[in-house]
Amino acid sequence: MDGNQYIARILQDEGVREICCFPSSQLLEEAADLGIRPVMFRHERGAVMAADGYSRMSDGERFGVVVTQNAAGAENSVGGLSQAFADNSPILHLPGGYALAERQVRPNFSAAENYRGITKSVESIDTPRQIGAVMRRAFQNLRNGRGGPVVVELTADVCTQEVPEAAQRYTSPKRARSQPGAAEIAEAARALLAAERPMIWAGAGVLMAGATDALRRLAEQTGVPVFTTMEGKSSFDERHPLSLGAGSNAAPGPAYARIEESDLVLALGSSLSINSYTLRVPRGKTVIHNTVTPEDVNKDTPCDIALVGDARLTIEALIAEIAAQAGDAPRDLGQAAAIAERRAVWQAEWADVLESDATPINTYRAIREIDENIDHENSVVTHDAGAIRDSMVPFFTATTPRSYIGWGKTTHLGMGIPLMIGAKLARPDRFCINVMGDGAFGMSGTDIETSVRERLPITTVILNNSGMATYPGLFPIARERFGFTSMTGDYARIAEGMGAVGITVTEPAQVGPAVREARRLNAAGRTVLIDVHTDHEARKSRY
Is the predicted pLDDT of residue 538 greater than 60, yes or no? Predict the structure, then answer.
């Protein structure tokens, strides 16, 4: 068999059943011949982002796979790869490459040369004999350590050559979990038990490690409240009495209060990275930091006790050690009542917008209506970038693992549509809904047609305020003088033109029924776009 056939056979052996793609590669034909379904998007960035969504719904064994052509196909993939890299999302990208003799000739684009800053690993196929080893290393990197995009560049002429039979011996790498040493676990348990105002800070690593049940048991055993990061949202049921909710750079009032007053932060499955879109642990607190990646320890946040290892194994070791030190009886630190009281005050402060009957529709009222009209246990929800993210993360209720996909250490507008198509591909039994602004729609709106064509029905809610970059106070002179952030569009009609069902909503009371109708239509195989006419209130300062 030739190189493309061998790679397709390896993908089949690794359990790959679907490939996101645009627009062409001989590998797609060989994979289809083995029964692997190609899902064609309207652009490479969308295909990469869909693979990202697929991976975020997986159990750490199945990954989103994306195939693009060489040249412009590899170049156009950069945005999607950058987003996956920032969020540590494991995807396998197989871009085409120029023939071996042409690879270093300008302006020919080499993924192996240019992707190094936005991938976990990148290799090119230089000889047919090395294919098995390169693919083995790729799946080793996907399954182990910090997540991120893994790239294998398919050199055009090499992948059409015969693979010697002696080189066709592929061994699938396994997932290897590690846990901190007993001394570090014992030290962390003592510190946690001695703290007066401890809190848990749960990140995406809890989801990737399958540690959500262990996290709940630890919280109930210790009585310690739990805050989840944007990427970790849904790792802890936000209806639980010990939930502080989730935050990006905006978070619920109870979370802000606890972060400030805490004397110890137990970070689980989190990099504790700091940028413009994340909350940070204030200085002066005892920090116990669990991460699978040693390089994250003391990177941005000073650490007192490092617990390097798999989040689930770490949490289970902590549970056992705390029981050994303090007994099996659950502790009650009185936090449930305090959280409930603070949440009631915070929600009362926001009642004017959450319950607003004004038109155009207030953004927060629309989010509340979505929250109240879906089946949380059987849905997957995501925000888009910018103001939508900051509005949704604190106010939308995440329940079961992966019922909400939080993303965005970098903020690529338009990710929501392909992300949900990828989530639907991974979990066709779920109602998949993304919420975006009208500016974001311009980045990926044509993939509504992909959802229709590929029979992967999703629902897109556009919070349509006829403007972009609508943060309060931004560009006052340019807006008044030139109106340069204004935009128009009948998005329901656009969706209808691509074979979806378009629903226009102009009154607050119409939002809930529209969401329920979308659920019915998705179940019947129809893609839906709900165009909700909203005001310009992007976010408020009092979170």
Answer: no
71: left (phi over 0), alpha (psi -120 to 50) or beta: left
Among residues 391, 48, 365, the alpha carbon closest in space to that of 230 is found at: 391
CA-based nearest residue to 204, from 144, 271, 258: 271
The encoded tokens of residue 97 equal 């490459």
Beta strands in 167-258 (DSSP E): 198-202, 226-229, 243-247
Q: Which alpha helices (H) appear in 198-252, and where do they start and end?
A: 204-208, 212-222
Q: Catalogue the E-assigned strands of 458-541.
A: 459-464, 501-505, 528-533
What is the rounded CA–CA span in Å between residue 340 and residue 455? 43
| pLDDT at residue 327 tops 50 | yes
For residue 472, what pLDDT is reported?
64
Give the chain's count of helices (H) and strands (E). Answer: 22, 18
pTM of the prediction?
A: 0.96
H or E element that contains 23: none
- Tokens 């750490």 found at: 60
| pLDDT score, position 243 | 98
pLDDT digits (tens, 9 = 90+) for 343-402: 999 999 999 999 999 999 999 999 999 999 999 999 999 999 988 999 999 999 999 999
Distance CA 402, CA 425 (A): 14
Q: Are 404 and 377 in contact (CB under 8 A)?
A: no
Determine the pLDDT at residue 486: 86
Q: Which residues contact 268 (CB under 8 A, 6 or more apart)?
A: 200, 201, 202, 203, 205, 206, 211, 215, 290, 311, 314, 315
Asked whether the beta carbons of 123 and 138 are under 8 A apart, the reply is yes
The one-character DSSP state at 528 is E
The continuous run of DSSP H or E covering 291 comes out as strand 286-291
Structure confidence by residue, pLDDT tens digits, 149-201:
999 999 999 999 999 999 999 999 999 999 999 999 999 999 999 999 999 99
| Integer Cα distance of 188 and 248 in angstroms | 26
User: Which of 40, 7, 37 has the alpha carbon at shortest distance from 21?
Assistant: 40
User: In terms of C-beta distances under 8 Å and separation of at least 24 residues, what long-range contacts does 319-327 make, across chains too?
Assistant: 319/214, 319/217, 319/218, 319/221, 321/185, 321/186, 321/188, 321/189, 322/189, 322/192, 322/193, 322/218, 322/221, 322/222, 323/221, 325/186, 325/189, 325/190, 325/193, 326/193
The C-alpha atoms of residue 448 and residue 452 are separated, in whole angstroms, by: 6
Give me the pLDDT at residue 537, please. 62
